[in-house]
Amino acid sequence: MPAFFDLPGSWAKLYIPFDMRKAAEWATTAAFALAVYLLLVLWTGPIGLWSSSELIAGVVLSVLAGLLGGRLLWERGGWRMLQPHRWVLFFFYLIGPFFLAMARANLDVAWRIITGRIRPGIVRFNPGLRTDLGRTVLANSITLTPGTLTVDVDDDTGDFYVHWINVKDKEPRPEDVCGSFPTWARRIAE
Prior knowledge:
The chain is α+β, with helices and mostly antiparallel strands and about 190 residues long. Helix content is about 55%, strand content about 15%. It is built from 6 helices and 5 strands.
């Protein structure tokens, strides 16, 4: 929303195009990043949290995180990533389905390397995710799982292009390539 400010002197009003919501989103993201940073450096040694260099580095990194990551966290729906149940879901996703899929994929890739039974290729599928954060969670989950690598995500259509070690079908379903990851990404980020 534009804001008008009264100024003394010859200028009656000054028009400043400033969106308060975007400023709040940026400030919240930066404050959260600073809190996480300070929590991580709290027990890092004798200097730790009380060092001015740590505080300066934390502020600089937090400002950058707010500027670069704020858009991902606040698009379409506003404050959804501040909802505690999304963080709980993300935690359970990491220790449950993601960990099991990664363990399974490690064994599968090891078996394929030993036996030589690989059919690599790039496949395309659309998981139906609407937000950039949901697509980022899914793309990172796919890339961190051995045997798959997210090559590209089409911004317009939402199609994922994934290099897969064992192509079974030229037009696979998302579940064939990455299991339940799209469902979890939708729960967490959309």
